[in-house]
Amino acid sequence: MLIVSLSLIACLFYSMATSHVLSRLFDKQGPNQKKTLILSTVAILTHMLVLVNSVFTHQGQDLSTVNVALLTCWVIVVSVTTVSLRFPATLLLPVVYGFAAILLLASLFIPHHIIMDTINVDIGLVLHISLSLLAYCVLIIATLYAIQFMFIDKRLKQRDLAIMTSHLPPLMQVERQLYQLLFVGTGLLTLALASGFYFLDGMFAKETIHKTILSIVGWLIYVVIAFGHRVFGWRGKPVVISIITASGVVTLGYFGSRFIQEVILGRF
What we know:
This protein is an all-alpha fold. The protein contains nine helices and no strands. The model has no long low-confidence stretch (mean pLDDT about 90). Helix content is about 75%, strand content about 0%. This is Cytochrome c assembly protein domain-containing protein.
């Protein structure tokens, strides 16, 4: 009951923050930063309490797909909210807040499975998991910047006066931050894969081979994009679409397979 109440409270405040930002999306002054920060902070702290009570249970540590997704979402929300304090993120905030609200609500209806009774402290495994989570979060934020870039670029080409006078960030700033995130995320994903091959023995085991292959495919796409941008100056819509595609492949590799196994097939 506690988790249900906390989830609904977090969902409510995320929704309020989303509504506030969207209502002033094209306003010259932008959303009220203080109000947005208050609403999002309450949501983030409540979201954190949901995670603590969901993961650490009496039976053991519940590291189901739902809880991993909630943790990943929380890290992304905190990161984007922090970035918004310095740079305009008017388009990103309603996306991450809205998604967090939907995910929290959905988590109440998706069964959780206890998949670990105890957490064995294995430095190699912890390093691999930490790097993988961090890389995924950075690359998803880069994908959000890619979507933001496409939106602003399209509206500018349509000579939309509303976007020219809005609080949205300049297109060149979005593009610069997009590639910075891409380089950092690709580097972290490289380290995550390298640590997996070095510390883990089952990267190509039957149960995980699809995850490994999809992760490598996504990594290759990111590397090609990063190399092409740095050496040949690749940019624009094809690059943005490729980034979104790579993120989809990596997401499918991890969350797709686990969701099917844990929720649809009921395995854990």
